[in-house]
């Protein structure tokens, strides 16, 4: 369980990015974080892993209050948080397998990490993860030889190699075509369910979020203005999050006939584009 309590952030410039944001993410739940540009989505993700220092409030992961930690304690806690990024953040010249194993770097000794000699169980687990994300046949390829969707699968396998207790996912599909985006969102949803992992996914594409996440949190100017099931995201809620002008310009993705919906029929996406 992740618990965010009255989280506030005002940058040194005076910009207030978060205003008393409070919500909990139970294990196994994937929360989509939506809101217009500048609403505070990235700041919230970064305050959770303390890449940005919150001005006030608390973040708790299981029994650990992350907002109290410093130095070694913070580094150890960060190992429990898997990060997945828009631009994949892979080491291009390393193989797929080496990139997945880099998720273990925080756990092995300095010498092992320096020589890249990982324990056998880490290597076996990395093969299992590559199989899970559909890349077993690509283990020895260099990362720069992969497609965008394949790279994101490596990013997911690397995050899972950490054996995280939480996934923070920042715009995972922003560089991908609609069909690959759906496949990545489906994979994220499946691995969260399989591993009982809480996840927060910062995502601009509202129809895609609505289709795949369990719950949506909407931010506007740092305030949490929506927190509900995707089905509850009606016109009034979209207006509260995006304002009257902006929400109907959000692009609806063209639903692919080749992809069966991952969510039950009652939660089918509602088109928001006219
Ligand atoms: N390093 C920083 N220094 C000062 N102000 C910042 C900094 N980072 C973000 N902000 C401000 O905080 C507010 C929230 O920004 P943030 O990047 O968290 O929004 P966002 O919802 O992630 O936007 P986007 O969808 O465009 O990425 C904005 O007003 C932004 O200008």
TrEMBL record:
Membrane topology: Peripheral membrane protein
Compartment list: Cell inner membrane
GO cellular component, one term: plasma membrane
Any Pfam family: ABC_tran
SUPFAM superfamilies xrefs: P-loop containing nucleoside triphosphate hydrolases
PROSITE patterns: ABC_TRANSPORTER_1 (PS00211), ABC_TRANSPORTER_2 (PS50893)
Keywords: ATP-binding, Cell membrane, Membrane, Nucleotide-binding, Translocase, Transport
SMART domains, per database record: AAA
Span of domain ABC transporter: 2-246
A GO MF term: ABC-type phosphonate transporter activity
Region listing for Disordered, in residue ranges: 254-274
Protein's recorded name: Phosphonate ABC transporter ATP-binding protein
Source species: Halomonas icarae
């Amino acid at each position: 369980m992740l618990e965010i309590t009255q989280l506030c952030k005002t940058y040194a410039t005076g910009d207030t990015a978060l205003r008393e944001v409070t919500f909990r993410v139970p294990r196994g739940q994937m929360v989509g974080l939506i809101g217009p540009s500048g609403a505070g989505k990235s700041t919230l993700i970064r305050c959770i892993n303390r890449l940005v220092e919150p001005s006030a409030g608390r973040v708790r992961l299981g029994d650990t209050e992350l907002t109290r930690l410093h130095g070694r304690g913070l580094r150890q806690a960060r190992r429990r948080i898997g990060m997945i990024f828009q631009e994949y953040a892979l080491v291009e010249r390393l193989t797929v397998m080496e990139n997945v194993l880099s998720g273990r770097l925080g756990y092995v000794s300095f010498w092992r990490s320096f020589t890249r000699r990982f324990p056998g169980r880490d290597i076996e687990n990395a093969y299992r993860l590559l199989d899970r994300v559909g890349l077993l046949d690509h283990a020895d390829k260099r990362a720069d030889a992969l497609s965008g969707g394949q790279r994101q699968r490596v990013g997911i396998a690397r995050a899972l190699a950490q054996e995280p207790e939480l996934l923070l996912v920042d715009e995972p599909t922003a560089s991908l075509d609609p069909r690959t985006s759906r496949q990545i969102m489906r994979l994220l949803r499946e691995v969260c369910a399989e591993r009982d992992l809480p996840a927060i996914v910062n995502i601009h594409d509202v129809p895609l979020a609505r289709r795949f996440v369990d719950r949506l949190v909407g931010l506007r100017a740092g305030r949490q203005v929506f927190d509900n099931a995707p089905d509850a995201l009606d016109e009034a809620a979209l207006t509260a999050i995006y304002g009257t002008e902006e929400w109907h310009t959000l692009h609806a993705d063209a639903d692919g006939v080749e992809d069966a919906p991952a969510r039950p029929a009652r939660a089918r996406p509602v088109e928001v584009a006219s």
